[in-house]
Design brief:
Elements (H helix, E strand, L loop, with lengths): L1 H20 L6 E7 L15 E12 L10 E11 L7 E11 L5 E11 L20 E11 L5 E11 L10 E11 L18 E13 L7 E14 L4 E12 L23 E13 L2 E10 L10 E12 L2 E10 L2 E14 L14
Antiparallel strand pairs: 1-2, 1-8, 2-3, 3-4, 4-5, 5-6, 6-7, 7-8, 9-10, 9-16, 10-11, 11-12, 12-13, 13-14, 14-15, 15-16
Length: about 375
Amino acid sequence: MKRHVVMLVLVLAGFGSAHAQVQWWPTEVSATSGIWVAEGDMREVVESPSFGAYAGWMTRATNGWAAFFGGVEHGGFVGMHRIGSSLYGWQPQLGWTLRTGQTRLVGWSFSTGLAYNNRIYDLESPNPDLIAVGSHLNGLIRLGITVANDSPISLGLGILHTSNGGLRRPNKGINTPHAKLIVRMVETPRRRVYMDGAEPRQWRSAVGLGIGGRDHGAYGGHIYGVQELFAQSTYVFSPRYGLTGQAALVHHGAIRADDNTDAPSDSIATNPLQRMQPGLSAGWSWLFGRVRLDMLKGGVFIHPTPGFIKGYNKAQVFLSVHSDLDLFVSLRFTDWRADYVSAGVALRWGSSERECSSCPNGGY
């Protein structure tokens, strides 16, 4: 009898030790509910509120650049989302989340990632009820606020947007205001942040090259390449914020497409110079150490994209992979209609985060 008890204790101890080393166990789970705010011709396909469930693997820090945001929490997530329509079904999602204000009652929340739609608009058997989504794989952006951050249970309020950035149309996108109940299953691991905030009253500049594309046709069709070269400078107001100006030269392949056939035209923009779009833009930047988010507004001087005005908005996300090298993804759009999406690399110079003399470094 004693032998069996000893063996049981050893097995349980071994299981507990193994369980403590399991890294794949999520730090939190969450449930969401909201409503798909569909456009007029799409409202009939919305049958019920949306809902979903997610698992997240988060870490937390309060030092370094995280100190300027009241502490941050960030990490990956996976989940399933039903947008409120049996016609579209379930939407698997995965991505990365950043939350600020972890030492306060209310903070900001930002998520980006990928979403997969099984049912999409099919050119061979067109269904007008499926014009919200034109491709299986779509980008995901979620922006909102969180309440009661530093507690086992917290509440998130925000809006979720999924679309393909104009790579394949129809691309109305899916916009879902929602609420999220977050349950932390274990204490969120705390880690040091070694990349500190940018030095105030300094300039940071970069030159970038991006490659992307967009769909010219209203429903499917050809995807035309887009190449962009830009130079930008940011004046750092504080380790959190900056003012950014950008000069860009874009070669827009969709300009040579015929509006009637959606095919490359022998008479439209046959000279590559006719497809060039020089432009200027300026806007606000949020600095998150190794990650930064730019929101710019500007316009092109000549050769505007067919169907678009000269003015545009631009969103950019940069990830530092080296002290002088960033990877980035950008989206250019007007009136919430995507013009093109691109990705590339940027070389930067100026004061780096690691050189910040006024940034806090101690603690977690």
